[in-house]
Amino acid sequence: MIRVLLVCCLVLFSCKKENPYGDFGGDFSLASQKGKWKLSDSNGKVRILYFGFTHCPDICPLSLSKLKRELKQLNEKERAQIVPVFISVDYKRDTPDTVQKYAEFFSDDFVGLTGKEDEIKKVTKQYGVFFALTPLKDSEMGYTVDHTSRFFLINKKGEYANSFSKVQGNEDFIKELRKLIGE
Amino acid sequence: MKIFLITILLSFGVMAEDYETNYEILNPWIREVPPVSKMSAGFVKIKNPSKKDVKLVAVNSDLSKTVELHTHGMVDGVMKMRKVPHINVPAMGEANLKPGGLHIMFINLKKKTIEGEKHNLEFVFSDGTKIKKEAVVK
Ligand SMILES: [Cu+2]
Description:
The complex is a heterodimer of chains A (183) and B (138). Chain A has 183 residues and is an alpha/beta fold.
């Protein structure tokens, strides 16, 4: 009997480890304009995460506008299955309200999030995102934020599925999105 | 002696004028950013057909409280922005300020960036040349 139970446990355990990326990614909770935002609360949709900061003059607006443009390839039904999320790692300067307004500029359904230092450190570690608040000598900016520029795709179950550094003109990106929408 | 000095002064004058008309400021533009943003970036191509290297040392504008010269570098997928003291425009060459690289950094915007709107920029070079040019928001 014990042996049977053990086998069952093993089977269950191996089933649970279905996601080939194991612990990479995963659920998190951050601050949005409307209060706490938890990744798993939007399960059933495909999420696209991008980490940046709102004082970013070039790379972040460029990346988000490219994402917006690429998503236009999807039809309305497909597009409705996707939630793009912009996460500011600039926990010192950005507020959930600022990040939401920043993200919304690119599309109404963009979600803008940020959090306290420990929350940002936790989620960036989960997703292998590097960030550093770096003082800029003799600059009015005070400090800048070095950050990984990458799009992370989260499947409908809330698991990490794939990531892309470039989305513009990248057929694989749209192909992967459609695959995840169809799952 | 007097004539000699005058000649030198005149030739300086001519040289300075030469430079001024020489540097080409091509397609300057400013990135449209969300209205909530306090920062934007500007891009331009500068050609220097003269036989002397020159540096872009500053850009003046009413668009923001401060204007700086910056660059970007991608290291292992991490984007790093840094301030630079000047941007070299080599003799018979060009400097290309473009997305993801060198840029004019507008800090603490005084106005919103609206697509199609134009803003005056003044480009200041190490030889004292100043060139005014309109940049479009896009
Ligand atoms: Cu900059």
